[in-house]
Amino acid sequence: MDWARNISIKTPAEIAIMREAGRINAEVHATVKALLQPGISTAELNTAAENVLRKYGCTSPFKGYGEPPFPTSITVSINRELVHGIPRDDRKLKAGDIVSIDCGTILDGLVADSAFTAGVGEISPKAQDLLKVTEGALYAGIEKLRAGNRTGDVGAAIQKHVERGGYHVTREYTGHGVGRQMHEGPQVPNYGKPGSGTLLRQGMTIALEPMVLAGTRSTRVLPDRWTVVSADGSLTAHFEHTVAVTSGDPLILTVL
Ligand code: MG
Ligand code: MG
Question: Could you tell me the CATH superfamily of domain 3-252?
Fold first, then answer.
């Protein structure tokens, strides 16, 4: 995709719809989070998510996306799986796992996109730290999503937060504009140099999503052609919000 040509500025009315899509997406997350117990299958998590979406007459842009078409409405990525894990009946959660859930919601043709990582039962102090640093990096980036800043300011803030924590950001997958499509411009890498990249303007809506690896920054894709794992098998985490750039503070759209 030509990221620069695919930037769309949203009207206040469109942002209001995206805020409602984001609220529904947050309700999906809350529902799935409450089910993260040992023994539940990742397919059951997808079913629970689809039940919430259906209640509002919404669908997820993930289903049918790409090639091969993604089969489900959420992605569930466990431990070494960074993003795009496919829910399955035979994939059950275990105590001590960390699980990343990503979901999108389409409402009246507009998309909201967000993700979180959480533990199943008791998790190791190392895993807890990885989640804390990754979520902190998301908020460090959101703080920079202001009109007049550039995407490099955002990426640099995320990278600094992650590397100070002793972890790595992926170079292969990035944040992105979102709204009329799931993936729009600008591209927002989780690394960069302050003052570089695309100028942020009021009315842009950005899915910001630090994807963090504990071992090295290298990834590979499994033979299912979707699941992205850390190359060295180390733990990974992923947090994402859809955020509107306003005339003032960043407005997080994907909250209850
Ligand atoms: Mg997402
Ligand atoms: Mg996204």
Answer: Creatinase/methionine aminopeptidase superfamily (3.90.230.10)
Distance from the Cα of residue 93 to its chain's centroid: 20
- Reference 177, options 211, 200, 153, 149; nearest CA is 200
Q: How far is the CA of 182 from the centre of ligand 1 (A)?
A: 9
Q: Which residues pair with 212 in a beta bridge?
A: 169, 237
**What was the pLDDT predicted at 5?**
82
pTM: 0.98
Domain ranges for the chain, please list them: 3-252
Distance 217 CA to ligand 2 centre (A): 19
Q: Give the pLDDT band (50/70/90) at residue 2.
A: confident
Does the pLDDT of residue 61 top 90, yes or no?
A: yes
Ion ligand 2: residue ranges with CB closer than 5 A: 113, 207
- Distance of CA 249 from the midpoint of ligand 1 (Å): 22
